[in-house]
Amino acid sequence: MRRATSLANLDLNLLVILRELLRERNVTRAARQVGITQPAASAALARLRRHFGDELLERTRGGFVLTPLGAHLATQIETVCAGVERLFSTDAAFRPEDSEREFVVLVPDYVLAALGESLSRAMHEAAPRTRLHVKVVHESMPADLAEALRVIDGIVSVPMPRFQVAGIRGMEVFRDRWVCVVAADNPVGDRLELADLERLPWVVPHHPDGEYPPTSPLAPLFARLSARPRVAVRVDSYQATPYFVAGTDRVAVMQRRLALRLADRPDLRVLECPGDPPPIVETLWWHAKNDEDEAHTWFRSMVARAAEDGDGRHRPR
């Protein structure tokens, strides 16, 4: 059994490199984040391994992975470091006008188009020295959402069962609805029917190579079709969708906010979507450790303000 370690015998500088090693799972990147050399980071990792009697990071063919103890420490390190930083802060109060904090948020490219400019303007007006790191979802959300939210400030996504776990909080930021986009000279009328969606070739963003997953936001609409749509174009971007509809007989089902922004051109038409698909509810998700953090509370208010500026709606959950 390991004996309790006296705080006086600890090198608290190791907390910083430990946090980055657990975040990055890469010695070189962790060294870059802390601002030390790679050999210094390797030496710190060796000291941490001796202290914990564990490898913490194990090399695999695909890179480094956390050991079980490393994964356990990763669930605690953010809270510990945040507490230490608050304890030693000369001014515990968060002042947006003076802050240089970086906020990190993960969003689909659709949300980036719908919310990004408004959020940028709101933050620049209220806190011009803060920084914003926007990560765009390219294929799918992180496998472990709770772990991901420990190291970033938020994820904007429609509700999914994987978000409904202890430790994750959510706030609805805006609602949208599905519409259809067709070429201006497409012979369909001004009102589409389900039969049109069954007949026309589709342009679909983020479509897997196979059946559309039942967890898709459009799954209820697909369930109402008597025939599986023929997918003519798969593209890994919501914002690119209109480019593959123009000048063709194809149809795309898109978010109204994005369609009005990107498909407002004479060679495209935006039509109501048949089948009464459910509304789109975009939600900001964050980790419970940030509930009382003044800076994070301010950031959530900026997201809500940006949604209002974009004619969105927000409701605490």
List the helices and strands and how they pair.
Blueprint: H1 13-24, H2 27-34, H3 38-52, E1 57-60, E2 63-66, H4 68-88, E3 102-107, H5 109-126, E4 131-136, H6 145-151, E5 154-157, E6 168-176, E7 178-183, H7 194-199, E8 202-205, H8 219-224, E9 231-235, E10 251-255, H9 256-262, E11 268-272, E12 280-287, H10 294-309, E13 315-316
Parallel strand pairs: 3-4, 3-5, 8-9
Antiparallel strand pairs: 1-2, 5-12, 6-12, 6-13, 7-10, 7-11
InterPro entries: LysR-type_TF, LysR_HTH_N, LysR_subst-bd, WH-like_DNA-bd_sf, WH_DNA-bd_sf, YidZ_PBP2
Keywords: DNA-binding, Transcription, Transcription regulation
Family: Belongs to the LysR transcriptional regulatory family.
Question: Can you name the CATH architecture of the largest domain?
Answer: 3-Layer(aba) Sandwich
Query: How far from one another are the termini?
Result: 43 Å
Number of E-type strands: 13
Strands of the widest sheet, in order across it, are: 4-3-5-12-6-13
Mean pLDDT: 85
Looking at the structure, what is the overall shape? elongated
User: What proportion of the residues form beta strands (DSSP E)?
Assistant: 15-25%
Number of helices: 10
Helix content: 25-40%
Highest-level CATH class of the largest domain: Alpha Beta
